[in-house]
Amino acid sequence: MKHNITPNTRVRRARDRGTADHGWLTARFTFSFADYFDPEHMGFHALRVMNNDTIAPGGGFPTHSHSDMEIFTYVINGELEHKDSMGNGSVIRAGDLQYMSAGSGIHHSEFNPSSENPTNLYQVWLHPNERGGTPRYAEKPLGNATADNALTLLFSGDGRDGATAIRQDAEIWFGKVDAGQTLQIPASAPAPHAWIQVIAGEIDVLGEHLDAGDGIAIENLPEAFVIDARSAVRLLLFRLC
Question: How much is the mean pLDDT over the chain?
Answer without folding.
Answer: 94
